[in-house]
Every structure is written in C-alpha cells, then in structure tokens.
Amino acid sequence: MLKTARALSWWAAIPPLTAIVLVLAWGRPLSNPAIVLVAAALIAAVVVAVHHAEIVAHRVGEPFGTLILAIAVTVIEVGLIIMLMTSAGSGPSPLARDTVFAAFMIVCNGVVGLCLLVGALRHREVEFHVEGVTAALATLSAVATLALVLPSFTISAPGPTYSGPQLAFAGVASLVLYASFVFVQTVRHRDYFLPVDTGEDHHADPPTRKAAVLSLVLLLVCLVVVVGLAKIEAPAIEKAVVAVGAPHAVVGVAIALLVLLPETAAAVRAASRNRVQTSFNLALGSALASIGLTIPSLAVASIWLPNTLILGLSPKDMVLLAITLIVTVLTVAPGRATLMQGMVHLTLFGVFLFLSFVP
C-alpha cells in the first residue's frame, strides 16, 4: 500500500514540476543545458499525460477508456504540430502530413505487430472480434485516403494540397466518420469492442472516483504544458534535424513516436494479458483519432496559421500506405492471429523507418 501511494505521489508531482519549467522557460533565451531540461520536461509531460488518461479510462471502463486515451493523444499531437508549424514561419508545411502518416504507420505496423508478437509468444494464438476491428479498419482506410492520398490528385490548388473549400469538406467528412465510429463503438455495437472472453480474469480494481478526478485535472495540466514546452523546444528540434542531415520528415516521425510511446506500452501490456481486442482498440483507435480529429482541427487552425498544409503523400509513401492496409485486412480477417502476422507488420514498420531516413 505504501509503495502504491508513493508511486501515485510521483505521478501527481510531475505535472506541477513540468508546469514550473514552462513558466521559467517561457519567453527567455535558453542555453544548451536549459534546452535539454525543457526536452526532458516535455517527454515527462507526454508520458504522465497518457498515464493519467489511463487512470481515467480504467475508471470509466471499456471501450470508453480507449476513446479517452485516443483523444488525449490527439490533443497532444495537434498541439505539437501547430506549435512547430508556427515556429517555422510562413510557407508550405508538410509537418502535419508527415506526423499523421508516421502515426498511421507506427500504429498499424509497429504497435499492432508488437502486440501480436508479444501476445502470440505468450499465448501461442490470440483472438479478437472481427466485427469491431474491421469497423475500425474500414473507417481508418476511408479517412486516410481522404486526408493523405486525394490531395495529390486534386487540381483546384497547386501541389499536393487542398483548396480552402476542399480542406473544409475533408475536415467535416473526417469528423463525421470518426463520430459515427465512436457511436458504434460506445453505443450501438459496444459488444464488438469488448475483450474476447479467454477464461482468464486480469481485471484490476478500478481507481476511486477521487483518484480519477485528480488524474483528470492533472491530465489537463499536462496537455497545456506539452503545448507550451513544444513551442519552446521547436527551434531546437529543427536545428537538430538539420545538424544530423536527416530529411525534414523525420520531425514528424519523432513527434509521432514521442506521442504514441506511452500508449504503445499500454497496448503491449494488454496483449501480454491475452486481451488483444483492447490492444486493437488502443492502436486502431489512436490511428483513427490521429487522422479523424487532427485533420478537422488543422482545417480550423489553417484560418489563422500562416502555412499552407501539404497533405498529399509521395508515391513511395502511398505504396507503404496501400500495402499496410492490405496486410492489416488479411491479418484481422480470420479473427485470430499468430506471431507470423506480427513479424510481417514489424518488418513493414522497419521498412518505413529506414526509408524515412534514407528516402
């Protein structure tokens, strides 16, 4: 009991500490040690934000819990994208496209592959509800194509971009699809997204109402801190990418990896307990929220942003998107999977990472 209380006190102490770092660093020139401290505070705020989102999610139960996690991650992602875009000045910006595409590839190949591998190694074969997973995958395929593929083929605006009316329509369509999925997931067909009964009871006692409310408050603090620290850290991130000679798309990969790291840990833990349905809810729900909520948010923000949103993927990335969707469909179609499917997804994830650095 003492150990648990001590751990909770640490999780509760980090948000105020990171908020203090934000206040002290805001509007001041920073030395290299200070930049490192801000980066550490930013990472800590992201990790702790998702931790507190998990506590709230555990209190409300499945599948509402995974929905809360997905929305929290998306708020962090949108905040990071907007702060980095405004820091880069005016002009065309592919950062939103790079981050959303990276989140899609990380989730659908990295997270899904790791969960299947861990679950299959421990339980030999894992099971999940085909109805729920395919519903998420169908919605994800539609919003990914709408946000990342079609802009490369429209002709109303030059380049792989949407015109103003097209971006507004894409944002509304993405939001409608996401809202429809949430309705199906939480109301109409909620049972499709509940974990498969494997005969094992791994349920921990839910947190108290007081603990959940405290975590909700600390989650909101962390979200504000993440956006503020990202604004401060943005110039250093850009300089680091230029210094190592990496393509600019690596910035988007770094943002997506940072944001999705804690949620990946939660999905893998669920897979190790033979609750792969929960892992899929987390993974595919995050990818869907990353596109279905990020694009509408950026469509609204583009009214004030000085940047033109470059959304259309290159032919190389379209190939990776297409093969990922095809492989994922083949993976989930039987309703069960082995480590072979996990290895295929992880290999595709490795290809994505390699080509991000060596395009």
Automatic annotation (TrEMBL):
It is found in: Membrane. The chain crosses the membrane at residues 7-27, 33-52, 64-88, 100-121, 133-155, 167-184, 211-230, 242-261, 282-306, 318-335, 342-358. The keyword Lipid biosynthesis does not apply. Keywords: Membrane, Transmembrane, Transmembrane helix. InterPro entries: Alkaline_pH_Ca-Antiporter (IPR052946), NaCa_Exmemb (IPR004837). One of its GO terms (molecular function) is potassium:proton antiporter activity. GO terms for cellular component: plasma membrane. Residues 35-186, 215-357 form the Sodium/calcium exchanger membrane region domain. It is a multi-pass membrane protein. It comes from the Bacteria. This is Ionic transporter y4hA. The gene is chaA.
